[in-house]
Specification:
This is Zwei Ig domain protein zig-8-like isoform X2. The chain has helices at 12-20, 22-33, 51-62, 275-278, 290-307, and strands at residues 72-73, 80-84, 89-96, 103-107, 112-116, 119-120, 127-130, 137-142, 151-157, 163-172, 175-178, 183-187, 192-199, 208-212, 215-216, 226-231, 235-242, 251-257, 263-270. By secondary structure, it is of the alpha+beta class. It has a six-stranded mixed sheet, with no helix packed on it. Strands 12-19-18-14-15 form a five-stranded mixed sheet, with no helix packed on it.
Length: 308
């Protein structure tokens, strides 16, 4: 006897009742369809209580998915979100079998209700609930996020008691760095190569300026040999090249992107000096000041005489 199983159309309880009676139906079918044997007229019957029947039921019932009771969160949706200052961030939550419940977003930092359903319950208009009708997705949109918005947000379902799913938001501020800083030592006559990196900006900086001793660098100055190469992207790099470095090139250089903080580096031009000597402002480092030497020598003589 053949049974056709429609998982989506047959309720689970009815299906279980049907499977419990499978051995009896099978035995009855075989009892009417098989002929008696020549030896004694006995019929082959399937005993519903034997080991084979029980094994059949156990294996078949294991394939039946358990019924879904109440709404559940889809844990495959990422719950770690990294955003950038000034760029709109989205926190996603997917709920299956929601029924007539409501999905809310709550900020853990101050236990503040931000949204309920498709309505916003905060005076901060940067927060907004996003939901397409008949979909399982409930998202929280944060416009112009700031670093202070970092933290835990909870997607909550209005069951009794409520159940929640945490989403972690990290908002990164733009950073500006000059490689090799904060001090660089360059040999006189060589090329000064300053590379500035701008990261985590909401968009590539429209302009990246350079200054020397707080004065804008003039690329058309009579000195010549000054060039700038800027490559924009998720990480923007700006390279300042100054050929044939001289003592006049010593000082502070700043990289100033238009949408991020500036970074500064101090450049020393070496004219045969050792870098350590530059920190003392002279070509060599005295081992000991003369006054201190005059005070130490008598004590050394006294201890030497005692030893003798």
């Amino acid at each position: 006897m053949t049974f056709i199983y429609f998982r989506e159309m047959v309720p689970n309880l009815f299906l279980v009742a049907l499977l419990i009676n499978v051995p009896d139906l099978w035995a009855s079918d075989r009892r009417h369809s098989r002929h008696a044997s020549v030896g004694g007229g006995m019929t082959n019957q399937l005993d519903p209580n034997n080991t084979a029947s029980r094994k059949f039921l156990q294996e078949f019932l294991q394939d039946i998915p358990p019924p879904i009771i109440g709404p559940v969160f889809d844990k495959t949706v990422p719950n770690n979100v990294t955003g950038l200052v000034g760029r709109t961030a989205y926190l996603h939550c997917r709920v299956k079998n929601l029924g007539n419940r409501t999905v809310s977003w709550i900020r853990h930092r101050d236990i503040h209700l931000l949204t309920a359903g498709r309505y916003t319950y905060t005076s901060d208009q940067r927060f907004e609930a996003i939901h397409e009708p008949h979909s399982e997705n409930w998202s929280l949109r944060i416009k112009y996020p700031q670093k202070k918005d970092s933290g835990i947000y909870e997607c909550q379902i209005s069951t009794t008691p409520p159940v929640g799913h945490p989403v972690y938001l990290t908002v990164l501020e733009p950073t500006t760095e000059i490689l090799g800083g904060p001090e660089l030592f360059i040999d006189q006559g060589s090329t000064i190569n300053l590379t500035c990196l701008i990261q985590f900006a909401p968009e590539p900086p429209p302009t990246v300026g350079w200054t020397h001793e707080k004065q804008p660098i003039n690329f058309d100055s009579p000195r010549g040999g000054i060039s700038l190469v800027t490559e924009k992207g998720s990480t923007t790099s700006s390279r300042l090249l100054i050929q044939k470095a001289s003592s006049s090139d010593t000082g502070y250089y700043s990289c100033d992107p238009s949408n991020a903080n500036s970074a500064t580096v101090r450049v020393h031009i070496l004219n045969g000096e050792h870098p350590a000597a530059m920190h003392h402002g002279q070509g060599s480092i005295p081992l000991c000041p003369p006054i201190v030497s005059a005070m130490i020598v008598p004590f050394l003589l006294i201890f030497t005489a005692r030893d003798l």
